[in-house]
Amino acid sequence: xxxxxxxxxAITMSIVGIDLAIRVTPDLGVGNTPLLALPGLTSxxxxxxxxxxxxxxxPGGSIKDRPALRMIQRGLETGRLTSGRTxxxxxxxxxxxxxxxxxxxxxxxxLLTVSSAIHPEREKILRESGAELILTDPMAGSDGAILxxxxxxxxxxxxxxYPDQYNNPExxxxxxxxxxxxxxAQTGNSVTHFIAGLGTGGTFRGTGSRLRAEIPSVRLVAVQxxxxxxxxxxxxxxESSIVPGVFDPFLADENMSVRTEDAQAMVARIGIxxxxxxxVSGAANLVAAARVARREQREGRHATIVTVIPDDGRMTxxxxxxxxxx
Length: 326
What we know:
Strand content: 15-25%
Number of helices: 9
Strand order of the largest sheet: 1-2-10-7-8-9
Helix content: 40-55%
Largest sheet: 6 strands, mixed
CATH architecture of the largest domain: 3-Layer(aba) Sandwich
């Protein structure tokens, strides 16, 4: 009898855990963000169009709500995230805020390792979101925060749920299952180019892979800063960084480097031409999109270019070489 009761309890809790994970996404309102037309960037052409996913419409204000929620879901499903454990990860901002509000909603403490080069406003938002912060060497950037998170987890792995956003396959799978299908539906399967920056690499890999599975001819363009010392918060210069396990180096048809100054200029330009406030990483994506649009126009081709604007800039006012916005 005792064995049967224990077996029933185990099965019931397993089903409840899976059911909770499934129900979290619609209840929390993550995803299904608008696709915005940006006519100011293609005023020179009637055959080329640029569109961008407005990811600040997510509850936490950024695209990182998608993978953060998915990784927490998976933690609940597998039993790695249980009552009393603390959610621990390295972050440069957006994922941390996602962990914080989702953790608060579900009743979990959140501990984040963050480079002390973080902009004060970004740090303030993280703390106000309920997260506890451990600041790391500013010269080590996001890599220093990653190493600190690994150190903390190794000392007491039973105390923490460590999603490890840079190496967790649920990061890119969140975009494969949500961002990609949304873009296909919103463009009527007409997208010709997809452009995204490389932070963890999750947005580019997940979305790009899904688009290619449905439209084999789609061109995938990866964006990163042009040097190790840059001011495009949220993006990594892969050659000089700890390369995330999420990153797929063979997926992109083209790799495009963007200068910090060009991304900052785009922040101002898009505010004037399309009346949008965006962050510098989203602006870097638009710099690349505008280049591709000019090229397609010169070649006389029709193009539907889609990119993402990870956030609205409220947390990316500062400079620093971090790496996670996308």
